[in-house]
Write a structure and sequence with these properties.
399 residues, alpha/beta, TIM Barrel, eight-stranded parallel beta barrel, globular
Length: 399
């Protein structure tokens, strides 16, 4: 590889933190923590591999910051000070291996498998068939409390030695729910206009910034399109929110799309793993579930194509000034990744499923061995979540 071909291995700052290359491990829910939110060997091994694989920036899978913001049984937590020591030891090891690591903080909102039938949301909703819940509208006090817990989580992340935090404002979880006209039908200070829908995220960011100081990186993951049954967040409205975050002082933005409840396979494209998902049901109804899912989510609606969020960069990058834009979504070809960075469409290349299958691929590329990504977008890796098992690639059985 000539010098010009090494652009993916040039350093780049996020805030005052230098990332050694342009590769980001996009937040990938691992489902590998203990039930109390603490982390053990199974969880830590994932991050050890990624850092040994020379990933420049690792973003953790979503971490909850309060029991009432938890979405999954085996979700890691920064909801109490007892959690700090485990993360601290992990981060030290990641740093020793030369990678930087950011904590993705999330309040699940209506997308929860564990909060019972009526989880909190900006507005009431019909039965959610994915999570099998009927969301209820949050009271003002609950909204303020959710902001407080996310801020406390950021403070704990800082104490645990994370290099920054990412506010999860995408994929149908609470912050995205407030931003989205599909989920948020309030007419008070928290909804009714794009500015009021942005208010929740604005308050989270401002309170976080005050808590962690001006030099600690705060980033956000944002939907450019919700893909909900009726209109949700679209790129026009999202672009406005991203511009507002840049004006507020955000340190980086990652763009993505889709919601778990309504468009998981628009979010990740490829096959719908109906067999794997049906296993969450009792044996006698598994075949029926498989048929139902095939009808509800036909593969043809989610055809995989490379770089499926790339077009949005043309609208978003000009709004960013010097703030880095992180792109995720079907990036699979090394040459096209180089081109995206060289043409300044985005500043970082973010990968999710390829790192589940090949956690060492960046190291191979850095040594000059341009192996192809072998992830075939079968999406079976996600079938482990409803079974309460850790996410892994069943083609090589390791994360």
């Amino acid at each position: 590889m000539g010098n010009d071909d090494r652009i993916l291995f040039t350093p780049k700052q996020i805030g005052n933190v230098t990332i050694k290359n342009r590769f980001v491990r996009s937040a990938t829910f691992e489902n590998a923590a203990n039930k109390d939110g603490s982390i053990g060997e199974e969880y830590i091994k994932i991050y050890e591999r990624l850092s040994k694989g020379e990933v420049g920036l690792i973003i953790t899978g979503m971490i909850h910051t309060s029991e009432d913001g938890k979405s999954y049984h085996r979700q890691a937590g920064l909801h109490s000070d007892e959690m700090i020591a485990g993360f601290s030891a992990m981060n030290e090891m990641v740093h020793k291996n030369g990678s930087k690591i950011i904590a993705q903080l999330c309040h699940g909102g209506r997308q929860s498998m564990i909060l019972g039938l009526r989880p909190p949301a900006p507005s009431a909703g019909m039965l959610d068939l994915t999570f099998r819940v009927i969301p209820r509208p949050m009271k003002n006090q609950e909204i303020l409390s959710a902001i407080k817990t996310l801020v406390a989580g950021a403070k704990r992340a800082q104490k645990a030695g994370f290099d920054g935090v990412q506010i999860h404002a995408a994929h149908g979880y609470l912050v995205n729910e407030f931003l989205s006209p599909y989920f948020n039908r309030r007419s008070d200070e928290w909804g009714g206009t794009p500015e009021k829908r942005f208010n929740f995220l604005k308050r989270v960011y401002e309170a976080m910034r005050e808590a962690v100081g001006s030099s600690y990186p705060i980033t956000a993951k944002m939907n450019i399109e919700d893909h909900t049954p009726k209109p949700g967040l679209t790129i026009e409205e999202s672009a406005g929110h991203i511009k507002s975050l840049v004006d507020l002082g955000i340190d980086a933005v990652e763009i993505t799309c889709g919601t778990v409840s309504f468009s998981l396979f628009k979010q990740c494209r490829g096959n719908v793993p109906v067999k794997a998902l049906a296993k969450a049901m009792i044996k006698p109804i598994q075949p029926f579930t498989e048929i139902t899912l095939k009808i509800a989510w036909p593969d043809k609606n989610y055809t995989f194509y490379e770089n499926y969020n790339l077009d949005a960069c043309d609208k978003i990058k000009p709004l960013m000034g010097d703030i880095p834009l992180i792109l995720v979504g079907g990036l699979r070809n090394y040459e096209s990744m180089e081109k995206i960075i060289r043409e300044q469409k985005a500043d970082f290349i973010s990968l999710c499923r390829p790192f589940i299958r090949q956690p060492m691929i960046v190291k191979n590329w850095n040594s000059g061995d341009i192996k192809q990504i072998t992830c075939n977008n079968c999406n079976n890796c996600f079938g482990y979540v409803p079974l309460d098992e850790s996410v892994r690639c069943n083609l090589n059985r390791t994360f």
